[in-house]
Specification:
homodimer, alpha+beta, Butyryl-CoA Dehydrogenase, subunit A, domain 2, two-stranded antiparallel ribbon, 17 helices, 12 strands, about 55% helix, globular
Chain lengths: ~600, ~600
């Protein structure tokens, strides 16, 4: 149940695939030298393994409690958070102006991956700070920035995102929470929110809630939602904490996983006649709350995709260690007894599948992190625009596909353990349970797929995906002339062709048969993810050929990566034509079929 | 969280697909008239829905406890079991000579499916009785039969199977538990067993343990394992209970699911110097214990496959009910608000996928149950032999494939629920947790696949599968000339061709490249399951065309079945060529790849 940061994989992908050297050339990314990045990763790896990872099962076992209206987090949570914040980790990727470290996203990403591997339930707390800080940076007044931003970036105060209501889950248009403007420019909020992670806790002295609500004169639907900042304790002019606000946690969910993260039902302004509402301040313009959320959406979705990679890595490490240790059965060919189960072909296939999936998703995520950096910092407008297009197109894939892969990885991790995997003390079942939320929150896989097909492909008639396919074809062409990689090139070409068949069908039918197209949206997300994974592992394989003998990675390591890419092509990517056929062939049957 | 037995599906499959009428012609199956079967299913459905289903979440929440060395089962368990046994349900499929109802397996199967849907953790208790009764019938002395069989068939006493030891899980050759022969013909057993379901409980006054152990002079490995019967309380000559035996539960596992079923660590003969071992009697011949286990294996594996169908059905019902009730979002085409989520194409696709998988696995299982009956009772030796061959070939598929499908069904059931699916009170997560053991116990999916490829295909050079493929081709030919079913015929033909490609490769390489073949064993199990599912749903679709207008099934129901078969062909079975390609193409890469 230990965790060891996969530094070799992270360093290889950052340098050879995600373009760390190019990112470090960008304005305000110059600090990200190879040496500094190595030092950051190593330090983070120590903290993840030494402090956060041991608390993971504690959080699962002890869970959170609601006592006298206050949330108590698991033993060790507060101390770990204090050390985390003091290490400067909360603001790792946030701007230096407000106390952040300002590291490029491609450097911050493997670090966050480590936190998620080590302890996802814990890490949701600082992750909320970064999301909230970005929202405030994007839209809030200078006064709000001055009061709250540094506290959030440093981690001194906690943050939350209050979106969901009982009748408003995937459909935020149905939000009912109300905000009444006051003479002093503040607002009084009232209403109920559910599924609010870290809605209350004792870890930080204040908690800053971002809340979506409606003004009295707001138009109905998505265009009438505004964003508000509601602190748990009001902040006096000198920055000290004042009166307690009328916002409280009224219940905790009993969940399948992430027990260490309190999931709160929150009540705003229900303190009877004395209240009149919780005091808040508007963030940005009235009725533009959802617009701001959408701007931050790519970052948020990316973060959940990285959760998938992190949890998957942890489950994989545990399964690999078990498979090397557990002796059971005899060699199928020689009959030799006393075999570690990793020597059984089926167990090895499962482990390779897990690793191939993680590495494919990780290569895509780190590459995408590099695009974020280019989009944000590149002085080359064309390069920045292209990176932005790729980020927009592929964030639903990084989120939806990486989180779905994670489920399969955690599933296999239990299977490798056999009966021990079903026993909670073994610890591997926790990953399976924890992971189950990540294909749901921050937009279900279905929502991601609708976004991909409806908002991304159809609106621009597939232009960016066509552009991406040209890049993919380039990798296939390089593989075709690389030693020993021809069969991967053939596979990649076939899989790209399958992707194009599905794309052509979607574009041809998106107007007149939209429902049939949307019935294939999730299979299309899987298809695009799979082909992106092959493309990225093709880039990984090519990168192994560019390394000089005896370089820092080691020949065995490099050979293993090339073999992994080959395995992915022939064992997994081979599903691409089937996915394409299902998209094209099954849409109408979904609509025509009736369920009794 | 209610359950309603799917009587329409069960009746249709039994009559139109599994050959109930033909089974009812067999000797000692004559009682199974259509009217009687309807009455049995209806009565079972009431008991499942009214008594067992409401206890399912109680068992999950309350779990089992070990108090003063005794296992206490969840509230309501004892009362429900008493009513279950009094209803004659324990011996439903067991021979009348010992108090069973003697119903054919194809009738007993839907009844057991209901119990598993309603409450899998509970149902493991009577399921153990039937397995143990079959072992005693197969091999035990007349004296043991006289003393124990009627009590087990009636359910008055409970049964257990004691196989696993810490070092002997999938590999029973590693069993160490010892049995010393005594002068009086009895044996003294000592050793530890783990993962023993219902190893102790207060529900029945006695528990009859079947235990695998080694005699002092036994050869090593699988050929030195004998089977013993060890009662919790010794039985006096007059059948009354005597002294307590030296066998006890020393620990309960804390598990991911099936909390209502106590999973015991059992200790035999550890009562210090006073003991000398637990008193037991040998079942059958020395050193033939594993052989007996293998004879019962088809029945046992079939039973776990039916668990998969049952749990999947329950999860599906819950998801369907939620999707019809939950209003969220707007219609993708018309923009109309207030949509029940079942109207969203992606949600409907998930529900259709769940139902198609369940119906495919159910049709195969019921058909296979009919083969059991034919194999056991048919006076036509050729028909009996063919049925036996099919049972032998396909039991690893019914077990391995049905249980794997169940995981995907339970996964989708959570996904349909969105955030509510992650909240334990919703109840759908329990199915996901409960289901996770069924791909592991009674032989993991990997063990099933090795049995299929190694013991079934290679030993007879694929003969029975070739025979089965001829039957499948016959269904494709019928579909080709049935109105509106041509595209299903094309699909089935292509999928059978994919199956044949994989089979040819396996047979060609099984001798010289066995490890590479075994690396593809699980994908082959999935492939064969998928094509069997298409074959069976093709039979279902054809059966709908044979019904007269206005018959008892109803035109809408029949149309829905045909549409479901078409959906399965185009959305799911389409994966067959990809699985085939992965089997043929990835075996060597599994062996060649190294994991860092």
């Amino acid at each position: 149940m230990t965790y060891s940061a996969p530094l070799a994989d992270m360093r290889f992908l950052l340098r050879e695939v995600a373009g760390l050297a190019e990112v470090a050339q960008l304005p305000s990314c110059e600090e990200a030298t190879s040496d500094l990045v190595d030092a950051v990763l190593e330090e983070a790896g120590k903290f993840a393994a030494g402090v956060l990872a041991p608390l993971n099962s504690v959080g699962d076992r002890e869970s959170c409690r609601l006592e006298d209206g206050k949330v108590v987090t698991p033993p060790g949570w507060s101390e770990a958070y204090k050390a985390f914040a003091e290490g400067g980790w909360v603001g790792l990727g946030l701007p230096p102006d407000y106390g952040g470290q300002g590291l490029p996203k491609c450097v911050a990403t493997p670090v966050w991956e480590m936190w998620f591997s080590a302890n996802t339930a814990f890490t949701m707390l600082p992750q909320l700070n970064t999301g909230e800080a970005e929202a405030i940076l994007l839209a809030a007044s200078d006064e709000l920035k001055a009061t709250y931003l540094q506290k959030l970036v440093s981690g001194e105060w906690g943050g939350t995102m209050n979106l969901t209501e009982p009748q408003a889950g995937s459909d935020l248009a149905a939000i009912r929470c109300r905000a009444e403007p006051q003479a002093d420019g503040s607002y009084r909020l009232s209403g109920q929110k559910i599924f609010i992670s870290y809605g209350d806790h004792e870890i930080t002295p204040n908690i800053v809630h971002l809340v979506l609500a409606r003004l009295p004169d707001a138009p109905p639907g998505v265009k009438g939602i505004s964003m508000f900042l509601v602190p748990k304790f009001l902040v006096d002019a000198d920055g000290s904490l004042g009166a307690q606000n009328d916002v409280r946690c009224v219940g905790l969910e009993h969940k399948l996983g992430i027990h260490g993260s309190p999931t709160c039902a929150m009540s705003f302004g229900d303190n009877g006649e004395n209240s009149g509402g919780a005091t808040g301040w508007i963030v940005g313009q009235p009725n533009r709350g959802l617009e701001y959320m959408f701007i931050m959406m790519n970052e948020a979705r990316f973060g959940v995709g990285v959760q998938g990679i992190g949890i998957g890595e942890r489950a994989y490490q545990q399964a690999l260690a078990f498979a090397r240790e557990r002796v059971q059965g005899r060699d199928a060919v020689s009959g030799a007894v006393g075999q570690a189960i990793i020597n059984h072909p089926d167990v090895k296939r499962m482990l390779l599948t897990m690793r191939a999936r993680i590495m494919a998703a990780r290569a895509l995520a780190y590459t995408a992190a590099g695009w974020f950096d280019v989009a944000r910092h590149s002085p080359d407008q064309a390069a920045a625009d292209k990176a932005r297009r790729y980020v927009d197109l592929l964030m639903p894939v990084v989120k939806g596909w990486s989180t779905e892969l994670c489920q399969q990885v955690c599933y296999d991790a239990i299977q490798v353990h056999g009966g021990m995997g079903f026993v909670e003390e073994t610890g591997v079942a926790q990953h399976y349970r924890d992971a189950r939320i990540i294909t749901i929150y921050e937009g279900t896989t279905g929502i991601q797929a609708n976004d991909l097909v409806g908002r991304k492909l159809l609106r621009e008639n597939g232009a960016t995906l066509r552009e991406l396919i040209v890049d993919m074809r380039g990798v296939a062409a390089e593989l075709a002339v690389a030693e020993g990689m021809q069969s991967m090139a053939v596979r990649l070409d076939e899989d790209i062709a399958a992707l194009e068949r599905a794309l052509d069908w979607i574009l041809a039918n998106g107007r007149d048969r939209l429902a049939a197209v949307l019935a294939g949206a999730v299979p299309f997300l899987h298809l695009l993810g799979l082909v992106c994974g092959s493309w990225q592992l093709g880039r990984v394989a090519l990168a192994t050929t560019r390394q000089a003998d005896g370089d820092s990675y080691g020949a065995d390591y490099l050979r293993g990566l090339a073999e992994l890419a080959r395995f992915h092509a022939h064992a997994l990517a081979v599903q691409a034509p089937a996915l394409s056929a299902a998209i094209v062939g099954a849409g109408d049957t979904v609509l025509e079929s009736a369920l009794p």
